[in-house]
Amino acid sequence: MKPEWREWAAEARTEFPQAHSALLPLLHRVQRAEGWLSGETLADIAELLDLSPQYVQSVASFYSLYFKEPVGKKVVHVCMGLSCMLAGSDELMHQLEEKLGVSQGQTTADGEYTLLEGECLAACDLAPVAQVNLRYHGPVPPEKADTLLREEVSP
Amino acid sequence: MTQARYLLRNQEIEDIDQFEVYRAHGGYDALKKALAEFEPEAVVDLVKRSGLRGRGGAGFPTGVKWGFLPKDGRPRYLVVNSDEAEPGTFKDRELIERNPHQLIEGMIISSFAIQARQAYIYCRGEFLRGYEQLSRAVQEAYAAGFLGDNILDSGFALDIFVYRGAGAYICGEESALLESLEGRRGNPRLKPPFPAVAGLYGMPTIVNNVETIANVPPIVTLGAEWYTSMGTEKSPGLKIMSVSGKVNRPGNYEIPLATPLRALIDDYAGGMQPGRSVKCVIPGGSSVPLLMPDQLDTPLDYESVLQAGSMLGSGGCIVLDDTVCIVKASHRLVKFYREESCGKCTPCREGTYWMADVLERVEAGMGDEGDLAILMDVADNINGKCFCPLGDASIGFLVSAIRHFRDEFEAHVREHSCPMGEKVYDTANY
């Protein structure tokens, strides 16, 4: 457990009128600092919020944006929604897999990229659209896959 | 189209996401008017008379919903649903990213109307930019005295909290949203009781969509008669349609309700891409049945679209052209519901899984004669038998696709291949 987590937990408890609402914000904050949420981290968070580790585990596992294993510095979500499919997202995903040498769901060996399928990202006007660390990029036609991978990211 | 915008004002006014710019263009004047000239019940009455209906998809009259709150002295909450994730829908994202103050102004007026002292925005986890914009805008509203204690010396007090989800379509369902807001898994709750009676933290709660609340400031400023002068008697006012797919100008368009679907596609969205024709249209988000080319004159209001066999829903309009394989499109949509099913009830959890499985093999040319019957049987066992609306949403497009394009499904099975060819992507578009 990192010393600052205690402080963050206290802040999360008071950010919303009911302490119950603290869990998701705290998970977000710790993941932002750590990159992902290990079983140990989840147990620490449980302790900080007086919850059982099983409860925190079950909540964290429900939501797709909490990572239960290490991810790359750049997490790339390619939208696989119907509108993006019509604009070539399957081919975009294929190009990214080729260039990174991984399949969707995987992280490159150098720890730089994690490639993930995104469910409709609510940006069909930008189809085919992708997010890098939750920042939108689009349209990204398949032949621009390289450009997407070169995008600068802020932490 | 160059008509005035009342919701997507960002399309006319640059930087209206900035507090000063929003103020300079009359922002928060509706709030001043509401607090100075109206009693809370009068605002509820105004919204009732405007005929504003919920823009998240259900189309339930907003003022009537507000009227369901029990008058028993318990605290009440307003919760704004910004968990937009219905495939084809992207209007709330634009509103919160580009015009966040209008939502906040609408929330303050609406909270005054229902006498809530706390209001929440549940923002989709993927909307990081939207979350940042909302958080900043809320701070600016506090600094200007539009939030906090004794707002504009009216005696009314309100706090707004911005809460980030973490990736789950189901949290757009209002009771699942409330679960998530309370720090739990986003499983829907049994209804009744409805949120108006027992919602957030067990208290009476109104859950409204972003676009719904963004309508409130212009209604206060311009009046109920202004709103009812547009659209039809039962579907008055404005609706944002999100248009995507094979059109020249995909984007959000603010239309008077009852604008024909054809005008939306041709006049607003710039028509079909060169050489393409309409195969079918999903008019209201991925959960609704498709409309055929001979239905393009359907007016886009709740009643007319329903009469045409579909629903206006969230206004997410996906235009499919003649090169699109209907099996592949069906598979993509059903797969979405399979991924997003929360797993709580069996028909949805298992049904979406099996439909996606069968569709995948049919599309791959490995289907057999009985597969269509299996799909219809599974859909029938989902229809009306799920805990929440997600299950029914998963079959709307599929069942209508089988009905209108049975030949194409059968050809996949008979010829063991996709008659449309695999290619749906054309580099010429870029």
TrEMBL record, chain A:
InterPro entries: NuoE-like, NuoE_dom, NuoE_N, Thioredoxin-like_sf. The keyword Metal-binding applies. [2Fe-2S] cluster binds at C79, C84, C120, C124. It comes from the Bacteria. SUPFAM superfamilies: Thioredoxin-like. Keywords: 2Fe-2S, Iron, Iron-sulfur, Metal-binding. Binds 1 [2Fe-2S] cluster. GO terms for molecular function: 2 iron, 2 sulfur cluster binding; metal ion binding; NADH dehydrogenase activity. Coiled coil: none annotated. Its cofactor is [2Fe-2S] cluster. CDD domains: TRX_Fd_NuoE. Belongs to the complex I 24 kDa subunit family. This is NADH-quinone oxidoreductase subunit NuoE. The lineage of its organism: Bacteria, Bacillati, Bacillota, Clostridia, Eubacteriales.
From TrEMBL, chain B:
The keyword 4Fe-4S applies. Residues 327-372 form the NADH-ubiquinone oxidoreductase 51kDa subunit iron-sulphur binding domain. GO terms for molecular function: 4 iron, 4 sulfur cluster binding; FMN binding; metal ion binding; NAD binding; NADH dehydrogenase (ubiquinone) activity; oxidoreductase activity; quinone binding. It is an enzyme of class 7 (translocase). The keyword Nucleotide-binding does not apply. InterPro entries: NADH-UbQ_OxRdtase_51kDa_CS, NADH-UbQ_OxRdtase_suF, Nuo51_FMN-bd, Nuo51_FMN-bd_sf, Nuop51_4Fe4S-bd, Nuop51_4Fe4S-bd_sf, SLBB_dom. Keywords: 4Fe-4S, Flavoprotein, FMN, Iron, Iron-sulfur, Metal-binding, NAD, Oxidoreductase, Quinone, Translocase. Gene3D superfamilies: 3.10.20.600, 6.10.250.1450, NADH-ubiquinone oxidoreductase 51kDa subunit, NADH-ubiquinone oxidoreductase 51kDa subunit, iron-sulphur binding domain. Its EC number is 7.1.1.-. Its cofactor is [4Fe-4S] cluster; FMN. Pfam families: Complex1_51K, NADH_4Fe-4S, SLBB_2. It catalyses: a quinone + NADH + 5 H(+)(in) = a quinol + NAD(+) + 4 H(+)(out). It comes from the Bacteria. NCBIfam families: nuoF_fam, PRK13596.1. NDH-1 shuttles electrons from NADH, via FMN and iron-sulfur (Fe-S) centers, to quinones in the respiratory chain. Belongs to the complex I 51 kDa subunit family. This is NADH-quinone oxidoreductase subunit F. The lineage of its organism: Bacteria, Bacillati, Bacillota, Clostridia, Eubacteriales.
